[in-house]
Design a protein that fits this description.
alpha/beta; N-acetylglucosamine-6-phosphate deacetylase; TIM Barrel; hydrolase; Metal_Hydrolase; 9-stranded parallel β-sheet; metal-binding
Length: about 400
């Protein structure tokens, strides 16, 4: 029987023979999609008397919300932090390639760069939905240059900045515009940072704490002003100390305002964080864990020398170092690799591993009303996985955009 055309001319797709991730557990039921959104089958049957126009046999697959990567510096030879005339085409190439890793939305990330790089790159890429052309762009993540000299990691020292012009003016001088920006990572101990955090949050931009020597009270003050994320927990911050846990202490802080949650990024590539540290973080604050790749130009390429912004990076095995040093500089991991490693290393459930790559980043960015879940009315951005969490197919708005 055809679908009921009185409600919409769009065809209805029914995904069958699957387990879908809904309400924090895998449920054996079908998934219905129309107009790029997830349908409530009860309303379809009883109110519209509608039926599926097309059936997709998932052959026992898990269906999870599409993965969302909020920290990815590039990949496949593309470095987002390079001032080029076709930054948009580079972002598009990466957007297309990461579909095979289940990523349906992402935040292209720029590391600390001179102002001319931001002024050149940021206007070239707009926020846009995903599709057959590639994963959707949720806005840039600007990691630096307002970070700590002591914890700069792979960020070039000569381009670090402080809020010397009074705060928000420094941001505009450096970045040029915030129109396509979703997140800014900064060090909360810098003078003037608290007013900057407040101003960014008022503009709907997520503020993350990272590359910082902040103590716990400075970190808590930043959260009270609106900061809601920690950039790659444990990396590029003071180590946990029992008398002053620093930024890490936010995971169990009692000073987080009521109704607010602090999220934290983890690079679960088996290199950046020891499995025991992954387990400590997850067990302390499971609902805040957000998997990020922090992937660089070399993701998807053979070992050798590549760039990360203004630095030369050397790939040795699975490690990415600033050339001539042992300073880690991003990863070459893909999001599906991180999901599998996180599950194995932490001992968490399949559901928790999948939500760390979908629901939690969507909540962090304030998008969980339409992304990061399979609730009725949400975007039908889906990833089909086998039992061992290998990606079999990726869908955006209910349309297949990649299949193994």
């Amino acid at each position: 029987m055809p679908s009921n055309k009185s409600v919409s001319d769009a065809p209805i797709t029914q995904f069958t023979n699957c387990r879908i991730l809904r309400d924090h557990c895998l449920q054996r039921e079908d998934l219905w999609v129309r107009d790029g959104k997830i349908l409530d089958p009860e309303k379809l049957f009883f109110d519209e008397h509608g039926y599926a126009d097309k059936c997709v046999d998932c052959e026992g697959s898990i269906i999870a919300p599409g993965f969302i990567d909020v920290q990815i510096n590039g990949g496949y030879g593309i470095d987002f932090s390079q001032a080029c005339d076709d930054a948009g085409s580079g972002v598009s190439l990466v957007a297309k390639k990461i579909l095979e890793h289940g990523v349906t939305s992402f935040c292209p990330t720029l590391v600390t760069s001179p102002p001319h790089v931001y002024h050149k790159v940021l206007p070239q890429v707009k926020v846009h939905d995903g599709g057959a052309h590639g994963a959707g762009v949720l806005g840039f993540h600007l990691e630096g240059p307002f970070i700590s000299l002591e914890k700069k990691g792979a960020h070039p020292e000569q381009f670090l900045r402080t809020f010397s012009s009074g705060g928000f003016r420094d941001l505009i001088e450096t970045y040029g515009s915030l129109d396509s920006v979703a997140m800014v990572t900064l060090a909360p101990e810098l003078d003037g940072s608290q007013s900057v955090i407040r101003d960014l949050c008022q503009k709907g931009i997520t503020v993350s704490l990272g590359h910082s020597v902040a103590n716990m009270s400075q970190a808590e003050e930043a959260v009270q002003h609106g900061a809601s994320f920690i950039t790659h927990l444990f990396n590029a911050m003071l180590p946990f100390h029992h008398r002053d846990p620093g930024i890490v202490g936010l995971l169990t802080s009692d000073q987080v305002p009521a109704g607010r949650k602090v999220y934290y990024g983890m690079i679960a590539d088996g290199i950046h964080t020891n499995p025991a540290a992954l387990r400590i973080a997850h067990r302390a604050h499971p609902s805040g864990l957000v998997l990020v790749t922090d992937a660089i130009t070399a993701m998807g390429l053979p070992p050798g020398r590549h760039t990360l912004g203004q630095q030369v990076i050397e790939i040795q095995g699975l490690h990415a170092y600033v050339a001539g040093t042992k300073t880690l500089s991003g990863s070459i991991a893909t999001m599906d690799m991180c999901v599998r490693h996180f599950k194995h290393a932490s001992g968490c459930s399949v559901e928790e591993a999948l939500e760390a790559a979908s629901l939690h980043p969507a909540q962090l960015l304030g998008l969980s009303h339409r992304k990061g879940n399979l609730d009725f009315g949400s975007d039908a951005d889906l990833v089909l996985l086998d039992e061992t969490l290998n990606v079999k197919a990726t869908f955006i708005s209910g349309e297949e955009v990649w299949r193994k």
